[in-house]
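User: Synaptic vesicle glycoprotein 2C. Structure?
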Amino acid sequence: MEDSYKDRTSLVKGAKDIAREVKKQTVKKVNQAVDRAQDEYTQRSYSRFQDEEEEDDDYYPPGETYDGEANDDEGSSEATEGHDEDDEIYEGEYQGIPSMNQGKDSIVSVGQPKGDEYKDRRDLESERRADEEELAQQYELIIQECGHGRFQWALFFVLGMALMADGVEVFVVGFVLPSAETDLCIPNSGSGWLGSIVYLGMMMGAFFWGGLADKVGRRQSLLICMSVNGFFAFLSSFVQGYGFFLFCRLLSGFGIGGAIPTVFSYFAEVLAREKRGEHLSWLCMFWMIGGIYASAMAWAIIPHYGWSFSMGSAYQFHSWRVFVIVCALPCVSSVVALTFMPESPRFLLEVGKHDEAWMILKLIHDTNMRARGQPEKVFTVNKIKTPKQIDELIEIESDTGTWYRRCFVRIRTELYGIWLTFMRCFNYPVRENTIKLTIVWFTLSFGYYGLSVWFPDVIKHLQSDEYASLTRNVERDKYANFSINFTMENQIHTGMEYDNGRFLGVKFKSVTFKDSVFKSCTFEDVTSVNTYFKNCTFIDTVFDNTDFEPYKFIDSEFKNCSFFHNKTGCQITFDDDYSAYWIYFVNFLGTLAVLPGNIVSALLMDRIGRLTMLGGSMVLSGISCFFLWFGTSESMMIGMLCLYNGLTISAWNSLDVVTVELYPTDRRATGFGFLNALCKAAAVLGNLIFGSLVGITKAIPILLASTVLVCGGLVGLRLPDTRTQEGSVDHCWTLWLACRSRKPP
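Assistant: Predicted structure:
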């Protein structure tokens, strides 16, 4: 009896030992799984729980308590029998919840740092800045491990097509303006709107799409803005009304405005420090290629009016519309190619999407290694630091709201978020950099675009002076019983009398009739360009199949006259227009002149430094303006234009690189977009001021351009130099921040 009691006692003790050991092993497995899945805060909470377990062996998960030894046996059996490994992990997650007698402040949910809701926002932002500094250093090492190869070159050409579309957009309006003015019957008072409306759209688009790129991502923002540009650029080639054409070009400019800030932010975030300056400069060449492409296509397409077709007299589709369609091809190509490219991994890390960023970085690494013939090389990065995500209050419409109310609230919230990000560009310590960059961007844009408009206008002024000297003046003469079937060009007829004359198939080019009388005359199959009848009298005259619009008869009188088959709308029929070829050729040369500057800036950007190139190029451009004093002929002005463009391109390239490097990831595209919008505003202002001085004086444009360029270059030299800083784009910024704060980075 006594032996059986001892056996039973030893059996109970053995069962208790087994249950206790099973419990310890289960907790050990759970802690190992949590260590792999949770962050540092969760790991500390589980280790604290394990310490409590060792002090109190009677503690079990909720719902399983012990009253004595017998219950201990029973609980052990129920807790361990029939459970697989997944169930044990599930139990372990619940073991992380403290007991009810613990303080409320010690409650920690899985994956949530303890006490974040009770921390001051400044503390959270300080922790985020520390995380960003650590991420910046780590990201540079990761990009160096990924290498520079096939992936970067593929992205280089894809983003280059988007940048090329931006260059084309700038030149399109200038090339189609002469033809569009005639085809759409644009009065002289309204022709200036076509040039300004595109810059207005680009100004708004740069700010909006740049801010959106910091909210939704570089790739997605670029896809949307390029799609908007391509759609409305294509649509503008078919519209007939001037107002609708302006509207389409406005939205087309709004779309392309986001190309520059998004492209440079996107590409800079996949480049290592030692490659960034050079390859961003090479990327700038696509803007030049876009200008050359637009000039070549205009030269090849617009003067060929035989490519036109019409549907009656109401719908006219002339060659300049074909040119607009062709110019939309780079945009369409970039949209198609972008669908195959991933998002910027640096942006994904910034918003806390660790797994997606890691997969893209591994894709970059594997793509480059396979291209090098090293497919066996393994991507060694396992975990990347992500900055602390700070929650923001978002206004959400209730489910009972209508769909348009929900869309309105969503758009308003996004715009407010963009505005907040923009205002952060003026917070300490980046406020000083933003102010300096604003001055440099404004002065360079004002001087460059102002003189770029002034040069062609001066050339036109010289041509008009030459034309005035070649214009034939015919006065006080009388012609009777005659027939004319040739082209009349550059003539002014004053006080003439034409009796029983026939004008058959005549092409009037820049012909003006003043105080003249037409009696019993016939105008048949006549076309005219810049032809006007001022204070003339028509008696018993017949107009058959002519394009004489009422505005061409100024203070004229008609007596017993007839109009048959009058051509409605404005006609483009001047086939061999030498002036059109001349305009395209001048722009082609001016764009091609930036090629040497592009090559020099790309090769020397990382050698002599961004600031040296920026300040030096702007100062030299200002000095070159004084050579305009000697521009007394068309050829000399074209030479000055090429020299000026070649010097300023280095300043543009270095300014793009400096702007990308001086803003952190969370506001890089927003800051770049704001500065690019300021660039377009300065361009419009420069066009107005310099355009009003054409033919008046040379002194004011030369002194004004020289002053703003030199002053802007001197301010640019005061910007922080990021060329020699180790680390990624963001690490350059954090190092500068640390120096400003007198703390080690």
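Confidence is low (pLDDT under 50) at residues 41-50, 52-114, 572-578, 735-745. Residues 269 and 346 are 6 Å apart (CA to CA).
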